Amino acid sequence: MTLLIAVADAAADQELVASARALAAVASWEVRGVHVREPGIQEPGSADLEGLELTAIDGDPVEALSRLAGGASVDAFAFGLSCSCGTGPAAGMGHVAEALLNSHVAPVLLVRPGMRRVSGLKRLYVPLEGSPSTSAAMRAADDALCARGREIVMLHVVTGGDTPAETGSLPAPRMTDQEHYEWSAWQDEFTMRFSTCPEGGRHRVAVRVGDPAGIIAEEADKNGAELIVLSWSGSFESGHGAVIKELLNAAPCPLLLVPSDAPAV
Amino acid sequence: MPKSGDKSTTTDSESARARKLERALDREFPVICFAWDGTAVARRDTDAAAVRSRVERLTALGVDIAVVSSADVADVDDQLRARPGVEGRLFLYLSRGSEIYVVGPAGPRLLERREASSLEEDQLAATAEALLDRLTAAGLEVVLVQEHLNRKSIDLVPGWPEPPGTAVGELQREVDERLRAAGFAGGLQECMDQAREVGREAGIAYPAVTSDVRHIDIGLTGKSDAMHAVTRGLVTGRGRRPQDLLVLGDTFGPVADGQGTDSAMLIPELRRAVYVSVGPEPAGVPPQVLHAGGGPTSFLDILHDQLAMREIVAQRSFPEPNADPAWRFEVKGFDPFREREVETWLTVANGETGTRGALEEGSAISTPATFVAGVYGDGTGDPAFRQPVPAPDWTGLRLMVAGSAMTLSNGEIIEHERVLDMRHGIVFRSWRQRLRSGRSVRMRTARFASLADRQVLAARAEATPEDFSGSIVWQSAIGVSHAGGPTKETQFEVLDDPPGLIASTRGRNGGGHVLAVTTNPAPGSPVARTPQQARDVIGGRLEPGDPATVDRLATIASARTKVPSPEVARRALQRARDVGYDELLRQHRAAWDAAWDAADLRVDGDAADQHALRFAIYHMISTAHPTKDTVSVGARGLGGMSYFLHVFWDTEIFVLPFFIYTQPETARTLLRYRYRNLPGARQKAAQMGFRGALYPWESADKGIETTPPYGYGPSGEQVPILSGLMEHHISADVAWGTWEYWKATGDDAFMASMGVEMLLETARFWVSRAARDREGRYHVRVVVGPDEYHEGVDDNAYTNVLARWNIKRALEALVWLETVDVAYADELKKRLELTVTELFGWRAVIDGYVDGYDPETLLYEQFAGFYDMADVPIEKLRPRPMAADLLLTREVTLVSKVVKQADVVMLCHVLADEIDERTTRANYDYYEPITCHGSSLSPGIHAAVAARLHDVPEATEYFKMAAAIDLADNMGNAAAGLHMATMGGLWQAAVMGFCGVMRRGEALRLDPQLPEAWEQVRLPLRFRGAHLHLDIRARKTGVDVGITVERAPVTLQLDGQERELQPGRHKLRRRNGRPWQVHAE
């Protein structure tokens, strides 16, 4: 597993590099850096980034990075959310990151300046709406980050609307005959259905009601989460994608977006 | 004659011979004996895998095999290498009848050996020397070759290459030419005659002289001795007749001028055996031998046919699910996200045990479990309350294919389907998998919990290689239950008789189980047992299309306070095994047929509704025990650990009516459970400072309150549970069930012996529970009604009205008892210390009970102050069902006009006999919009009430909402158990709602209002001794109802008027807006 950190600007991406390296360390991933040369922007050096092995490339960065992912030499990317020049739909996200997300090739770590840094990754949040197709994030978290001493909070935010219609979904029960039996049974099933964590990890199911993005940000902030792992379905415009779009601004810690059809990390 | 005629005659003769051969072989032979060289194998170095496979499979099927050869054990066994699963089926008669070996899993074991005496050795040596002298004197170059046991062999053509057994013609010519050139005009035959002569001269009384053309053998024994041993050991010795024996050889007829070596196998005792030669037999065969020809290939075909005849029995005996889609609950493919739901849906249960429909081979996401009703222990959870002690898991059965386990993740799923045959309570699985090794295997299983013998659980499993030959092995095991629970320990031991495994499980401070399991080859399946430590291993080497089928039988013995003796389960298992899977299945099916005859509800016009009703009825029948009063119906049935098999009001209010009107014996047993637990109800009332009987909100084995005082909410936060403290309406619910049962069945014996006492004790509780205010009105304060969003309320209408009803009915029942059995009535009053004064006081309480009813609006106020609570905009309560306490928060629902589930509407339903339809309509219209159906108990009752109010479209919507609770794709509600109350509610919605059949006094009101899609409904009902069959058909202009009345008359209430129907067939017709017309047929 190799995480490729896309460095645009050495100064602006210090926090990106720090969090990405920390995440790579806890997940036992290899880490490399890449810089796409652009006119007028100084090419950063390894020394600027605490020795990060950095490769500079020319040409169309989207094409170059996609080729790397497609060739299986890179399994995940990390981008900073400090871009002020892009035309992307989400604040701070450059067009390269957006293109890679849309191509569904690999998980993408997004770090905005000012976010809580990943360090030991004691706690991470995985928001789940309770449908199989949006549980890729949980699989990724279990595969790469489930470990003794680390808590993975499976956060299910209930909204007042319809429940997912997808077969195999397990939203919070709309009927709770006897609360004391119903919720524990639901939590057990929710965990078994969406988590495949090997032994050693600690999972907790949390249920909140309200606006998903606000709740996720609030819970993650309040409980000191260092990472939020989300499934990425391909659009910022509605549903799950709209929640992610909000979190790009509001999340207190880095986001790892996992394409819903991505291979296991 | 024309030449063509000759040809025709020849062809006819061959055809006749072929038909004769075919007829002779068209039956199963219990014993098959064959020569080795030339018959089974062409040469000594031929690969004998095909023979080995057939021999092992035939022995696994119980066929005795005898191999006859002049070779020794090293030669034959090295080539054959057959290892039957058991010793005692395969025998080797070697060294020309001088040795007998039996072959088992560990290889050959010598049984008998004829040892030549020293004199005989000398005689044999002298014979061989004499013959050698004669031959060499004639100028022949011959040699005495290796010495065999009890035999000397002279090679007539040293240096001649070893010919195939089937190509002896050339050899024969060579030998004859050489012998004749040397002066033996008679060729080989003359040479053999001389050998006998010198043998006799040497003192051997019966020299056994044979030849395979190349050699002349002089011995003390021959193949005839082997055949005599076969006759003694495998034919007469095992109670068989000679015609049960098939003998296969290749040289029965003359060879050159002499007899073929296999002619010695033709002994007089076996003249009625079937002899078949597969050799070329150039000189023809003796009359008693049939000629097949074809050599070893033909031999293999004959063995294969013998296998196929038996295996077809196994294939045909594998049960098939019902083909009618309306009886099939199908789960196609495999969805890991839904697997726990699937396991619950596919539970097979019989009121005593329930086994989840987990994959036999297990998986990381499987939760196999078998629950036993009524056996509890102290829970180990938090809080620790009575929990069921699950039985050991008996379903574990894994298929090993060439050493690799067949699992859904091993390779690629070609097909996977599971079908619950609801008609007969059997779960079928059909699965084809292409393993990573490239091999494809088809597996089928059929599992049931016997409804005929509730101790018995059974499964048949069949595996068939589709495209390979190889080893297939079933491994069975007993496992510790996945369900957890208060299991203190489980012990395992190997069971010798019947062969299998036994496991004993003990609950913490509670009951226990003994589970005995045996797995055996199914009839007709070519597999055999190989006992190993802690598990049964059954298998064999199969070829494409051959089924490896095993029958797995388990019996459970349970006790509520201890672990029963293993002997109890073992004896039950022995009985089950003696009966066998097929007969157990037949009895089980017959029991289900009888159950469905009494309960099936057939709906034409809406397949989904029909399916939902069958599913509900199947699980209700599965869950209830018809005779055992130590158990009742748990809220989540016998398929899941959720709710710990605890018994709630769900049983009396939702499930009991189904049994009252279809299987009243079971209804009686469910009420006897409550009567049995009356002491626990008295104890709870006393502990709370009241008199009489307050039934526990949650009941387990002891009848005492088993509701935990706290639980955990959505995010794991601790929440107090008040239902055990405050939800007292259950006492009136039990009383209601008692009364309903009595009125609907006329079971006076039950009422007199148990029912009246239950009514009196629950009534006494309600009298003591009510608090009198200054105005003389009686209040029931601080309760929780069916609407559990509002806790600690006063004067919940459902509770109070039903409590008052309870007191009234108790007094009525006592009066009735005094009429029919005054002595017992007096005894009962004395035992209960019921005085006239106390009873008089009850009447005052009845008159003063507050019920919240407003005669002007016709509304019942759900509880005191409900009207003053905050309104919640209707749109905030949509879409339904919704968990309002979660979405709006508990703080909001506690003080708002939001109803979790039918409460006043429920009251109108259960007391439909007393609450008129105008009042019901008013309350339904008021409460329905603000009910969010946050409980599975709600939609079915709303469907029933809406239908009674002739609001059929809304009733239909609610019916479908209820049906989706367990079956929707996206709810996941069923993973830990089914919703028994929903199922009862569905039945009530169909029968009491859409069919409009409800009790009115001691009559049945009839007012069908079928959903638009329902064209016809047929249902059996039992009512006051009468057996009824109703056939309701929707017409454009109204409804037609055919009623068959059996055993006793029945009183109907039609258009408000009672009318008695005598036994016979009646036709009722109601045209739109017009009264009923009744015609007797």
Question: SSE layout and pairings?
Answer:
The complex is a heterodimer of chains A (265) and B (1081).
Chain A: E1 2-6, H1 14-27, E2 30-36, E3 54-57, H2 61-70, E4 76-80, H3 95-102, E5 108-111, E6 123-127, H4 136-145, E7 151-158, H5 179-194, E8 202-209, H6 212-222, E9 227-232, H7 239-250, E10 255-259
Parallel strand pairs in A: 1-2, 1-4, 2-3, 4-5, 6-7, 6-9, 7-8, 9-10
Antiparallel strand pairs in A: 5-10
Chain B: H1 3-25, E1 31-35, H2 49-60, E2 64-68, H3 73-80, E3 90-94, E4 99-104, E5 107-113, H4 118-137, E6 143-144, E7 151-155, H5 169-181, H6 187-202, E8 208-211, E9 215-219, H7 223-235, E10 245-249, E11 254-255, E12 258-259, E13 274-277, E14 289-291, H8 295-317, E15 328-332, H9 339-345, E16 348-349, E17 353-355, E18 370-372, E19 376-378, E20 386-388, E21 397-401, E22 404-405, E23 412-421, E24 426-434, E25 440-449, E26 456-465, E27 470-476, E28 487-495, E29 500-507, E30 512-521, E31 528-532, E32 535-542, E33 548-559, H10 566-579, H11 581-599, E34 602-604, H12 607-623, H13 650-662, H14 664-676, H15 678-687, E35 710-712, E36 718-720, H16 723-726, H17 729-745, H18 748-769, E37 771-772, E38 778-779, H19 797-820, H20 822-832, H21 836-848, E39 853-854, E40 859-860, H22 884-887, H23 890-894, H24 904-910, H25 917-927, H26 938-948, H27 952-967, H28 980-994, E41 997-1000, E42 1003-1006, E43 1016-1023, E44 1026-1035, E45 1038-1046, E46 1050-1054, E47 1057-1061, E48 1064-1071, E49 1076-1080
Parallel strand pairs in B: 1-2, 1-10, 2-3, 10-13, 13-14, 42-46
Antiparallel strand pairs in B: 3-4, 4-5, 6-7, 7-9, 8-9, 11-12, 15-23, 16-17, 17-18, 19-20, 21-22, 21-27, 23-24, 24-25, 25-26, 26-33, 27-32, 28-29, 29-30, 30-33, 31-32, 34-43, 35-36, 37-38, 39-40, 41-42, 43-44, 44-45, 45-48, 46-47, 48-49
Helix pairs in contact in B: 2-8, 4-6, 12-28, 13-14, 13-17, 13-28, 14-17, 14-18, 17-18, 17-19, 18-19, 19-20, 19-21, 24-25, 24-26, 26-27, 26-28, 27-28
